[in-house]
């Protein structure tokens, strides 16, 4: 079975930092693209950042310069380093791993940023 698990969420004040991790098992991790999404109540899940198997990265404009996505293939792990957090970053953050038509989601981790 494939499992994807996020960790590292929590509560911080504006300007603070958090590092989310995503660990996957049951897949050849280095072949998968990794994407972080986030969702707040009443809104659609939105794209945050991606890292392809090649290492190419993409970011939503709202997080450029503040968030960094990376991967540690030897550990089957990806991370999202979030710096200079803002209250509008408050959301449940989800990790998605994808290879062609196969994709898997974690259950999410809550990030809360207070003023």
Tell me the strand percentage band. over 45%
Shape: globular
Report Rg: 13 Å
Q: Spans with pLDDT under 50 lasting ≥5 residues?
A: none
Amount of helix: under 10%
The computed structural class is: mainly beta
**H/E topology pattern:** EEEEEEEEEEE
SS elements, strand count = 11
* Mean pLDDT across every amino acid position: 97
End-to-end CA span? 41 Å
- How many alpha or pi helices? 0
Major sheet summary line: 7 strands, mixed
Give an account of the 3D structure.
This protein is mostly beta strands. The chain contains no helices and eleven strands. It has strands at residues 3-7, 10-13, 18-25, 33-39, 46-51, 57-59, 67-72, 77-82, 91-99, 102-105, 109-114. The strands form two sheets. Strands 2, 4, 5, 6, 9, 10 and 11 form a seven-stranded mixed sheet that branches. It has a four-stranded antiparallel sheet with strand order 1-3-8-7, with no helix packed on it. The chain is globular and about 40 Å long. The model has no long low-confidence stretch (mean pLDDT 97).
Topology at a glance:
Elements: E1 3-7, E2 10-13, E3 18-25, E4 33-39, E5 46-51, E6 57-59, E7 67-72, E8 77-82, E9 91-99, E10 102-105, E11 109-114
Parallel strand pairs: 2-11
Antiparallel strand pairs: 1-3, 3-8, 4-5, 4-9, 5-6, 7-8, 9-10, 9-11
Offer a concise description of the structure:
0% of the residues lie in helices and 56% in strands. It has 115 residues and is mainly β. The model has no long low-confidence stretch (mean pLDDT 97).
């Amino acid at each position: 079975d494939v499992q994807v698990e996020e960790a590292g969420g929590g509560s911080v004040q504006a300007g603070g930092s958090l590092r989310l991790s995503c660990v996957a098992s049951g897949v050849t991790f280095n072949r998968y693209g990794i994407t972080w999404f986030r969702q707040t109540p009443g809104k659609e899940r939105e794209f945050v950042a991606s890292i392809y198997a090649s290492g190419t990265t993409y970011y939503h404009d709202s997080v450029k310069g503040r968030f960094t996505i990376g991967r540690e293939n030897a550990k089957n792990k990806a991370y999202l380093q979030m710096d200079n957090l803002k209250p509008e970053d408050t959301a449940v953050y989800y990790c998605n791993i994808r290879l062609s038509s196969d994709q898997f989601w974690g259950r999410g981790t809550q990030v809360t940023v207070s003023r």
